[in-house]
Design a protein that fits this description.
The structure is a single chain. The protein is of the alpha+beta class. It has one domain: B-lactam Antibiotic, Isopenicillin N Synthase, Chain (Jelly Rolls). The protein has nine helices and 14 strands. The strands form three sheets. An eight-stranded mixed sheet has the order 1-2-10-7-12-5-4-3. It has a four-stranded antiparallel sheet with strand order 6-11-8-9, with no helix packed on it. The chain has a two-stranded antiparallel ribbon with strand order 13-14. Strand 8 and strand 9 form a beta hairpin.
Length: 364
């Protein structure tokens, strides 16, 4: 931080947590599509069940961002309900040009088609989370996720470590920047409405971040011959303020916890999926829910998903503002924590539901 309390433009990119190197899943499947090593097989109780809950997907709220921007009260109420009851919603009329999303999808698909040797030019080192590889692996006996990922810090621009940004296919770096800028605009517009439903001025939520940091994670889920025994991503809640996910229109995978049931988030063409992260839950003193999510694997098709995480600067101390604490019961559910500490402590554990949120909780 600078002496005048602002964050410096030449501040170095933060480093995050170490992760143990593990095999590349796409390569494993390429060598033998029928092998599912024991390290990926979940305990019976953690496996996806075959009860069909997909009809519940249609209850997940759909929010029209263009209505929010016009100050439509009904849409604002819908947003409030979505964040309270689901912690998830899909956004339509979000303003991200179809051509930009399509370019992103085409470039990512090309990147994952490259040989392992090519992709490994951007391999994630064991002491960081940027690059191509796997994060959140903290022990040799941990059950592994059926996926590989490319993880980059995209904003502020001086946090970018370009050695991890692919050079191939041609133009992919520009596409990542263009897509991320478009998503950042959606996030800041959503923040205005979130501020309003929290009873604050339009710009207040953005202001609380001091510096709005943005990370990008492109997940590659190879097909799996035993999709009922593995998970693409372990159950977890996000450590961000919000996450904005673009999924493919024709392959399902994302599931969210609602009323103790795993509900699939079936893709709506061109919509973005937004979820409340832990920071938003803390700032709202638990009014808005950062719910657990996971991804399941697919028998025949690979799936790529594009997650943008928006979160505060490391030095920001997060706690519920006094007006969010119920004036009758005065029950404050979260104590003050430095965000950088919260984030790193969560990364040093394996992803396990909401276990990592414990460090910010006030014991009741
Ligand atoms: C993630 C995540 C879900 C998905 O990247 O953290 O939860 O559908 N992704 O890929």
């Amino acid at each position: 931080m600078g002496s005048n309390g602002t964050f410096l433009d030449n501040e170095e990119a933060p480093t995050y947590a170490p992760s143990i190197p593990v095999p590349n899943v796409q390569e494993l499947v390429r060598k033998d599509p029928f092998q599912v090593p024991q390290r990926y097989v979940r305990k019976v109780e953690d496996r996806p069940k075959d009860t069909d809950t997909s009809y519940l997907s249609s209850f997940i709220p759909v929010i029209d961002l263009s209505l929010l921007l016009m100050g439509n009260n009904e849409e604002l109420n819908k947003l409030d309900l979505a964040c309270r009851e689901w912690g998830f919603f899909q956004v339509v009329n979000h303003g991200v040009a179809k051509q930009v999303s399509q370019k992103m999808k085409d470039a990512a698909a090309e990147f994952f088609k490259l040989s392992l040797e090519e992709k490994n030019k951007y391999a994630m080192p064991s002491d960081d989370i940027q690059g191509y590889g796997h994060a959140y692996v903290v022990s040799e006996d941990q059950i592994l996720d059926w996926s590989d990922a490319l993880i980059l810090l995209v904003h502020p621009s001086h946090y970018r470590k370009l050695k991890f940004w692919p050079n191939s296919p041609k133009g992919i770096q520009e596409i990542i920047k263009e897509y991320s800028n478009a998503i950042r605009k959606v996030a800041t517009e959503l923040f205005q409405s979130f501020s309003l439903i929290m009873g604050m001025d339009k710009e207040a939520l953005l202001g609380l971040h001091k510096q709005l940091v943005q990370a990008y994670r492109v997940n590659y889920y190879p097909p799996c011959s035993k999709p009922d025994q593995v998970l693409g991503v372990s159950p977890h809640s996000d450590t961000s303020t919000i996450t904005i996910l673009m999924q493919e229109d024709d392959v399902c995978g994302l599931q969210i916890k609602n009323n103790n049931e795993w509900v699939p988030v079936n893709p709506i063409p061109d919509a973005l999926v937004v979820n409340v992260g832990d920071v938003f839950e803390i700032w709202s003193n638990g009014k808005y829910k950062s719910v657990e999510q996971r991804a399941v694997a697919n028998y025949s098709k690979a799936r790529i998903s594009y997650a943008s995480f928006l979160f505060p600067h490391d030095e920001v101390e997060i706690e519920p503002p006094s007006h969010m604490v119920d004036s009758k019961t005065k029950q404050q559910l979260y104590k003050k924590v430095r965000y950088g500490e919260y984030l790193r402590s969560s990364m040093n554990e394996k992803m396990e539901g909401k276990a990592h949120t414990q460090m910010a909780k006030i014991e009741g």
